[in-house]
Every structure is written in structure tokens, then in C-alpha cells.
Amino acid sequence: MTLSKSQYIRGLQCLKSLWFYKKKPEFMSQNNSSQETLFNIGYDVGDLAEELFPNGVEIQFNPNDFDGMIKQTQKLISEGCEVIYEASFKENAIFAMADILVKDIETNSWDIYEVKASTSVKDYYIEDASVQFYCLSNGIKNYEDIPSDFRLNKTQQIQVDSFKSNKVHIDKKIIRDFIKEIKYPINFFDFETFQNAIPRFDKQRPYM
């Protein structure tokens, strides 16, 4: 039995929910208007993120042919495609799709970009990214499995070092520099009646 990334996360959150999803889908509740709105927001944010990495090729989702999606991904990689949207992989019956996969020409490696319509990192996002990393790294299951010479960017290295040392990383210099730039009085927009995942005004934050 193959588990997709979302199904794996569902199982972590509630095993009973995963069982019903796989074995008795007719008992699962249908999406309501609120859920559909969240999905649409996610699509909008995803489309905007792809504009940061233009000229990519998208793997069309087919719930009945995961293997076909994987083969198409492998074909694009072998042909030299440098940007792939929804790149698909499987490892030990775990299927995952990377929102944006970008080749680093200088190091001949690949960067994964996971897109979320959120303003903060949720706990399950870490599990989400871990599944992708596992599928793309041929079985690396946790931070302890990452070799010391494995190429990481600056942010990733901080995350790994923080985990292995069990110490919280706080860059006090960045915080001090940010506070120094604040000029009073400070003005705020307060919108209670609607929320935008993608800001409509300069210097507006998502969901402001």
C-alpha cells in the first residue's frame, strides 16, 4: 500500500482518520465552503511562488497513476530540466510531491521549496518537509542521518545544528538591527472583515 505525504501526515495526527480515509472513504465528511476557500488560497499562493522560479514544467497530478508522475519527473531531470513544479518521488511506498524543485547549477544539486499559505511554521510542516527529504534522499529518516558533509544552505545548517545540539538558535544581531530601523510613530492597518494570503498593499503582511 502506498501512502502519500498528506496521508502520512494525516496518520500522524489521527490514525483512525487515516484508516477511514484508506478503508472507508464513504464515511469521510465532504469538503465545505470554508475548506474550499482554504484550498483556493493555497492554489493562489502556490501560483505566486512559481513566479519566483519561472519557466518550470509542472507534473500534472493523477491520483490513479503515481508511478507515471514519478517517471515523468525522472524524465525531466534526465533531460536537464532545471525547474519542476510538483516533482514526484517515492521511497519505500511513501509518495511525495515537492512544490518547487530547482537545480543548483554550480553545485549540481537540487533545492526543494515547500510553499505554505501561512505566516509561521507549524509543527506538522517539519514532518511534511521530512517526508519529502526522505523520499528524495533515499531513506534519510531524521536529522541524525544527515552526513556531516551533506550540502545544506545556511538556514538548513542552522536547523540541523540546533537540533543536534538541542539549543535554541537566536540571532540577536538581526533582532537588534531590526529594532534600530524602527521609526516612531508606527502605523498599523487593521482589517477584521477579510484576510489576504497574498498582501494587497506595500508592506502589508499575509493575513493582516
Structural write-up:
By secondary structure, this protein is α/β, with parallel strands linked by helices. It has a domain of 136 residues. Helix content is 41%, strand content 14%. Strands 1, 2, 3, 4 and 5 form a 5-stranded mixed β-sheet that branches. Strand 4 and strand 5 form a beta hairpin. Helix 1 packs across helix 2. The longest helix is centred in the first third of the chain and has 18 residues.
What is this structure, in a nutshell?
With 208 residues, the protein is of the alpha/beta class. It has 7 helices and 5 strands; from the N terminus they run βαααβαβββααα. The radius of gyration is 20 Å and the shape is globular.
Main features:
208 residues; 14% strand; alpha/beta
Distance between the termini: 42 Å
Beta-strand residue fraction: 5-15%
- Strand segment count: 5
Uncertain stretches of 5 or more adjacent residues = none
Please specify the SSE layout and strand pairing.
Elements: E1 3-4, H1 5-13, H2 15-23, H3 33-50, E2 57-58, H4 66-78, E3 83-91, E4 94-104, E5 109-113, H5 123-136, H6 154-165, H7 172-181
Parallel strand pairs: 1-4, 2-3
Antiparallel strand pairs: 3-4, 4-5
Helix pairs in contact: 1-2, 1-5
